[in-house]
Design brief:
alpha/beta, Rossmann fold, Transcription Regulator spoIIAA, five-stranded parallel sheet, five-stranded mixed β-barrel, globular, metal ion binding, S-adenosyl-L-methionine, 4 iron, 4 sulfur cluster binding, tRNA processing, iron-sulfur
Length: 413
């Protein structure tokens, strides 16, 4: 059977899409990039926001209109199972990605059911190398954010063993990977379920021979506090990209409390300042939700003030959308026009801050991993375009000559 696979969502979901495809190949399915040739379609879904959910259902209905068998995988299948199961021929949950080939073979070929013995670490077996490869380190989280539907989809924290992760990373690097994207729902809580932690993992990964860089994915501030000193020490290794992705979500303590984020604005600022004090050229990325049900005008202004103080290199801004089954969905919602206005104000500020941060690199020399013709990523994970072609997969020194809002420009040294 020929299968067309379409994936959406975060880096963790990107890894799952890769795992799904390789699992299918293991069971004799052929992956096709042409939907017209496909006998069936797998869509690996995201459900983090309402707009995303609507897009997922639109794609599912489109595939059905082509008279294709449709398999829905990922977060939508788990979080909104009742809503999607009547549309799909089959569901695959996030923790079943590595079983996709077996599940499809049993269902569509043998026409029989499957006993699912889920060993999550088996997922790692199905990751294939590329120049930039996501490496999932855990599944689920330990948070209880009042607005988040992903917890429903991904469940409680299950960390992969450090030994298995290092073994897989070695395999990927020896097969040509030059950049590892260390990914999880929250990388900072890695190992909390098995008497281990993220700094230990980073240190072991850094000991792998070869020239490569790793980017540490999104971290929850309340969990960073528990490992802060060791984490900063681990970040000093040249193999660790100098990027801190730490979502603030709101710059108002009352809103943070209603969100159940479990840290204060001052605690958050302290973490960022500590990182900046000890890690040179740190790229600080954060996330902000505007229009959360309890966000007053004053609370929104507080958020803007904190952002002006912290000056993030990049801000992922999002209008709050109500997610089914979450605590925040039962709160009184803010008018959509107010959410839109606040989002526009935030967008203007984030552009100003990004441009201001990028300008300070003009005239500096930076180590860059060449990822495409005339394009690469710096040691602190900024995108840079340069004047001459260089071999893809090599590390070069680039002198920065110009900066735009979301990127740098330079010349090969």
């Amino acid at each position: 059977m020929k299968v067309y696979v379409e994936g959406y969502g975060c880096t963790l979901n990107t890894a799952d899409t890769n795992i799904i495809e390789n699992s299918l190949r293991d069971y004799g399915f052929e992956i096709t990039s042409n939907i017209e040739d496909a006998d069936l379609v797998i869509i690996n879904t995201c459900v983090v926001r309402l707009e995303t959910e609507n897009r997922m259902f639109a794609r599912i209905n489109y595939f059905k209109s082509l008279n294709k068998k449709v398999v829905v995988a990922g977060c939508l299948a788990k979080a909104l199972k009742k809503k999607v199961e009547n549309l799909a021929d089959l569901l695959i949950m996030p923790r079943e990605a590595h079983l996709s080939g077996k599940i499809l073979y049993k269902h569509f070929i043998e026409k029989s059911s499957i006993e699912k013995d889920i060993n999550l670490e088996e997922k790692l077996k199905y990751l294939s190398p590329s120049l930039i490869t996501p490496l999932p380190i855990s599944e689920g989280c330990i948070g209880n954010c009042s607005y988040c539907i992903v917890k429903i989809a991904r469940g409680r924290l299950v960390s992969y063993s450090r030994e298995k992760l290092v073994e897989k990373a070695k395999e990927l690097i020896n097969s040509g990977t030059k950049c590892l994207l260390i990914t999880a729902q929250d990388t900072a809580c890695y190992g909390f379920d098995r008497n281990d932690n993220l700094p230990n993992l980073i240190n072991d990964l850094c000991s792998i021979e070869g020239e490569f860089i790793m980017r540490i994915g999104m971290m929850h501030a309340k969990n960073v506090e528990n490992i802060l000193d060791d984490l900063i020490e681990a970040y000093k290794d040249e193999k660790v990209a100098k990027l801190l992705h730490l979502p603030l979500q709101s710059g108002d303590d009352d809103v943070l409390k209603a969100m159940k984020r479990e840290y204060t604005v001052d605690e958050f600022i302290s973490i960022v300042n500590e990182f900046r004090k000890k890690i040179k050229d740190l790229t600080f990325v954060t996330d902000i939700i505007v229009g959360f049900p309890t966000e007053t005008e004053e609370a929104f202004e507080n958020t803007l003030e904190v952002l002006r103080k912290l000056k993030p290199d990049y801000i992922h801004g999002a209008k709050y959308t109500s997610r089914k089954y979450t605590e925040a969905a039962r709160m009184k919602q803010i008018d959509t026009k107010i959410r839109k206005r606040r989002s526009e104000i935030l967008d203007k500020l984030r552009r100003e801050l990004s441009y201001m941060n990028n300008k300070k690199y003009i005239g500096k020399k930076m180590r860059v991993l060449v990822t495409e013709e005339g394009k690469g990523i710096t040691h602190n994970f900024k995108v840079v375009r340069f004047n001459k072609n260089a071999e893809i997969g090599t590390f070069k020194e680039i002198k920065i000559t110009d900066a735009k809002t979301f990127g740098l420009f330079g010349e090969l040294c």
